């Protein structure tokens, strides 16, 4: 075979191979299209089209007065499908749209925006993220009127992808109580404890997978709309919360303490109005709310002398002591087996009455009395702990409640010294919440109510669930014993270890507590200080507990560290709460005003009031040396004397006597939010005149 024939043969073989290979390809294409077409079409759709979750809008969390504590704000990412807009709409609007995008985002030039949009349109790209910066609702509304965008999603291709973010209008106020929930569904506070209501039910929608691994929504009749979450209404009062946190923080800084907690509760209802927990940061600088010591396990500790209230309750219920009986405390020491009980006062108190022993917080006196009357039957003493309802968790509405710990008589860890030490608040552990329950029950005439921090779950105006006050025990002791305990607690403030918080305007009842901290099995010179009580003592409305751990410096006792914080909170609440503050009684305030003769004249703008008086022939005089246009009235010799009311000063103004219209004008110009009850003129305000203004604070007015 010559060379020519060899080449021809090879060419023919190559041609036949190529022809067979090409035929195989055409066969495979035809087979895929006509035989396996449906199979691969379904596979393609399953990969590129999916029903994906559409998150529901999370519910809001409110304070008792309707103030917003947490909400989900909608933010939007601006995306565009460049091929949707018709040619004339696109060509006419692309230049203006590019200029607006460049001017708004300020990240690249108008030409760069125009080029990226046009390139995406030419290449058939269906999903173009114009900018990854998220915009707010108002910005989205304005942007939706821009060229091309104004034609909407179907006519202009604009897509505003909603991304919700949790927002707290009061920033870190009650941050641990409001709480959080992370992506792993772990969290704390109301956000976590009521997540099943807040989260709502997610929906589903059809999405298409596009270049770059992104997904864009596709309208489909089978889309399921999400069911938004319920709103949670708490019992918290933002003003009281602010007062509690501020007072606690100041004392923590002053005493360089490890942490502190405050709970303020309504006596009759058990509604918690404030709960604050501040702990020193790991850096040692500043404090933050990192753990709920008031309720949680880490807040379980030996309470110290605040527990003596229960010891006195047990002793009085047995009927074997009289508060005027004498007891000899000797030199302030007393030996129980191999351990020595000591009083805080060097040299002891000598012979004193049982009432004085409680007021002075004598460890020797209380432990001797309890050991004498219950030493042979310690189970009976423990039964009074159970009767008081503080021996176990109360199923508090926030998850993570600590379980109180008390030794049980007869078990291996019960010693001969256990009872006397337990009687003064050692060898037992309770949370501040449980201690407050005991004191609140005494303030409440013996009725033990369950603390609550959420009072309702609602959607719109429809409540799914309401939480009413729950009475755990109708009475923890006899009426006589409760009255005696109330007298003892008042005596602590007027004559005992808390004399520094005595107030001439109203009565405080309470008990100090100072417990040495047990570290590595040994009691140290570090202290857990506390004060628990209620006010006004003669008609209790609020109960509260303050605990401060490991304060530094001299006089690191409950009366010196925690009690002043209690007093600061009580003083401010007394000044703000019109129902308990007799000094805010408008009848007393306007005693000099002859209401029978001048029922309509109290306060307002001087030009309007003068016009009114002149029209009715009433003599009135105003020496306007200070140039004030707002006045209050007094009556002298059947004539009205106007006195300047300095509402323009940079403090909370006095609006008593003003009409509601004038009061709203004055207060809202100060940045205050106003709520009111009743009809007529203002006869009381919740924030005292002259107080510092906190923006967006809520002030309550009583009209009458």
Automatic annotation (TrEMBL):
Keywords: Carboxypeptidase, Hydrolase, Membrane, Protease, Transmembrane, Transmembrane helix
PROSITE patterns reported in the protein's UniProt record: PASTA (PS51178)
Domain of life: Bacteria
Record bears the keyword Membrane: yes
Subcellular location: Membrane
SMART domains in the cross-refs: PASTA (SM00740)
Pfam families in UniProt: PASTA, PBP_dimer, Transpeptidase
Membrane spanning stretches: 7-27
InterPro entries named in the record: Beta-lactam/transpept, Beta-lactam/transpept-like, PASTA_dom, PBP_dimer, PBP_dimer_sf, PCN-bd_Tpept
Domain PASTA: 646-704
Matching CDD domains: PASTA_Pbp2x-like_2 (cd06575)
Keyword Cell inner membrane attributed: no
Protein name in the entry: Penicillin-binding protein
Lineage, highest ranks first: Bacteria, Pseudomonadati, Bacteroidota, Cytophagia, Cytophagales
